[in-house]
Amino acid sequence: MNNQIQPPEEIFMSFAAPIDDQLAQKLFNAFSLAINNHVKKVNLLMYSTGGYISSGIALYNFLTNIPLEITTYNCGNIASIAVIVYLSGKVRKTSTNATFMFHRTSCSPTIPLGADVMRIRAESAERDDRNTETIWRKHITMTEDQWNVLNKTDLVVGAEEAIKIGLASEIADFKLPESTQLFNIA
Q: Which of 2, 60, 65, 162 is most exposed by smallest CB count within 10 Å?
């Protein structure tokens, strides 16, 4: 008789944190553990106001290329680079009253910068904008009016609009089945 505990094929994770290198490492570890334990499906509840572009793109690249069926959930607000992480879900769900916020790259220097450094930062911001826009366009179809808003300021969309543009696949709350363990990443 085999007394080994079999890991579930489906697990539930959550995080409510900024997207940074520390969170990326925690998610890399959690998803690696899931893969190594033969998990097939991960439900990922998200709440994030954004963070570092490089961390978000690294997470997107990792999560879209691992052998797991990932469903991402927006339970309140997903903003900035966190939208890119949300897009890594093969299935994307959002609560009725949740929002998504998009914007172009910005930086706020804390020290005086010379022209050369400002030029390098501007080039980096333009590259980040191209990378994030490529990912947005791969998954969603914004209207011309939405692109015009985004090119000037923040663009905020609610659940219904998220469905219309293909950002979310359905409106549904994250529901943890009874007697199921929730793994909180951050």
A: 2
Amino acid 124: pLDDT: 79
Residue 167: how many CA atoms within 13 Å on its side-chain side?
A: 28
User: What is the residue range of 179's domain?
Assistant: 10-101+122-184
Tell me the two tokens of residue 184.
């909180």
* Low-confidence stretches of the chain (pLDDT beneath 50): none
Verdict on whether the full-model pTM lies above 0.85: yes
> What does the pLDDT look like over 86-128, one tens digit per residue?
999 999 999 999 999 999 887 777 788 788 887 888 787 788 8
